[in-house]
Amino acid sequence: PGLLESAYVPCLTLELHRRNLDVVLGQPVPVIYQGIRIDCGYKMDMVVNDLVIVEIKSVAQLAPIHEAQLLTYLKLTGYPIGLLINFNVPLLKQGVRRRLNPNPAARFLS
Prior knowledge:
Blueprint: H1 5-18, E1 23-25, E2 31-33, E3 36-38, E4 46-48, E5 52-57, H2 64-77, E6 81-86, E7 96-100
Parallel strand pairs: 5-6
Antiparallel strand pairs: 1-4, 2-3, 4-5, 6-7
């Protein structure tokens, strides 16, 4: 605890790479409106193995808006799993929330 979110992202990325996992940082999340792709500035902190969205926080307490952000990314991208990780907790497991997409994209259903 005690560091900014910007410090945790590269550290977690390094640990995931050490475990031979693929990590993409800052992947944009487009909104499709009436068939037109619109860039609204949404960017996911990281996507692991083209399967899991990971949103990193370092806040005193996770707020509903943090969870809403993750759920929005899950819906817009079709990824099946999301993790919301708050590093500003005494034990890391207390800061991890896992969310499933109730409607994952077809490519994840096989």
